[in-house]
Amino acid sequence: MSIADNLKQYKKEVETDGVKLIAVSKTQSVDAILEAYHAGQRVFGENMVQEMVEKQNQLPDDIEWHLIGHLQSNKVKYIAPFVKLIHGVDSLKLLQEINKQAVKNKRVIDCLLQIYIAEEETKFGLAHDEVIELLRSSEYAELKNIRIVGVMAIATNTKNEKQITIEFNELKVLFDGLKASFFKNEESFKEISTGMSADYKLAIEEGSTMVRIGSNIFGKRIIKHFKNISNN
Ligand SMILES: *Cc1c(COP(=O)(O)O)cnc(C)c1O
User: Which DSSP string do the residues of 146-212 spell out, in sequence order?
Assistant: First the structure.
């Protein structure tokens, strides 16, 4: 199957369920992205700032670029002019920096709060009490150039579907609670970004509104591809 065939198949499958497909193009070449683009895809996810900026410069302007990986505060300025959605916001400090760069660019930047749901030891994501503390803080209330439009999470990397389902469900329950407590009158707070190549079906069953699919569309990631672009 070609990238175009895969893309069309996954796009149709998830969009039938009313879910948005983020084609995760990290490490993939500009040509591979163009193949997906010509097959109809406009939303791409990258996890490295420099890689996203280089690709954005070379690819059509109507692409929506989503930053899906961990973002360091000192790199926000490079993506602030064009990024469509930042998925991995996991601290007030990062949110403040995004706000500052959004002001400079005269924009409002949409963000998702990354929630920690996995059983694994990973460094990133907010615990439930931390999310609530952030949303209650006066510092957050002052930020006028960011908009929190939902939550994002990565489930444990396991074949145990029951466990993954429990984690996705936990995310949905938290989302519903946040919606009721903090975003009741905000229609824009509606996104649950979760589910990747291995677990997107379970994610959709448990309420995901955005799935981030890379290898199922582009094939296995080969780091070399991106190195080639940088050397051009
Ligand atoms: C790489 C990545 C994905 C896509 O992973 P695949 O297994 O290739 O679908 C999704 N989300 C995040 C945060 C990623 O870093």
Answer: EEEEEEE----S-S-HHHHHHHHHHHHHHHHHHHHHH-TT-TT--EEE---TTTHHHHHHTT-SEEE
The tens digit of pLDDT for each residue in 133-163 reads 999 999 999 999 999 999 999 999 999 999 9
Q: Copy the structure tokens of residue 18.
A: 């009313």
CA 28 – ligand 1 centroid, Å? 12
Beta bridge partners of 146: 109
Q: Are 111 and 85 in contact (CB under 8 A)?
A: yes
- The rounded Å distance from CA 133 to ligand 1 centre is 28
The two tokens of residue 125 are 């994501």
**Cα(123)–Cα(97) distance, integer angstroms:** 20
- Measured from the Cα of 218, ligand 1's closest atom is 8
CA of 152, closest atom in ligand 1: 13
Q: Please state, in angstroms and rounded to a whole number, the distance separating the CA atoms of residues 151 and 174.
A: 9
219 CA distance to ligand 1 centroid (A)?
A: 12
Ligand 1 center to 66 CA (angstroms): 12
pTM above 0.90, yes or no: yes
